[in-house]
Design brief:
This protein has a domain of 111 residues: Jelly Rolls, CATH 2.60.120. It contains 1 helix and 13 strands; from the N terminus they run ββαβββββββββββ.
Length: 160
């Protein structure tokens, strides 16, 4: 397996949702044979964001801004980000939630690196959703549930 790939050789895939979300991204880790770390490159058009505001309970992420500028929502604050910035997004509760937003007039390009621990629980504070999974994204098999966070049920509910 080739352990090196140039950014010019990556296969970018577009995704968008509603008026706020639009990005193009490329997975890198599988292309170079990474096992314990996930790498990706994301391009965000002006005024857009790639992903919903979220926090991980198991995995830590790091972002490096390659080009452009914007803001990152972290917890209850927003911070400006620009080319050359490293950003840490540790695992934790909603106080570690994060989202990068392109507030500039040019594309925002960044690298994301994350641990690949499973099981993982991700919360989405803006929509009160959660995701629980035992399999890596895109993998076949395992358990994955994406749902809305409501009142908890009793441990013995439905048991006979």
């Amino acid at each position: 397996m080739k352990r090196i790939i140039n950014i010019d050789d990556l296969e970018f895939r577009d995704h968008e949702h509603g008026q706020s979300f639009n990005a193009s991204g490329a997975q890198v880790s599988g292309e170079v044979g990474a096992v314990k770390l996930g790498y990706s490159v994301t391009v965000v058009p002006p005024g857009k964001r790639a992903w919903p505001y979220h926090n991980h309970h198991a995995n830590e992420e790091m972002f490096f801004i390659l080009a452009g500028a914007g803001v990152i929502r972290m917890g209850t604050e927003e911070y400006p980000v620009r080319m050359g910035d490293f950003i840490a997004a540790p695992a934790g509760d909603r106080s570690t939630a994060h989202q990068i937003i392109n507030t500039s007039n040019t594309e925002l390009l960044y690298i994301a690196v994350s641990t690949m621990l499973r099981p993982e629980v991700v919360e989405y504070p803006d929509s009160n959703k959660f995701s629980a999974s035992t399999a890596l994204p895109g993998a076949q098999g395992g358990f994955r549930l994406l749902g809305e966070k409501h009142e908890s049920v009793d441990y013995w509910l439905g048991e006979k």
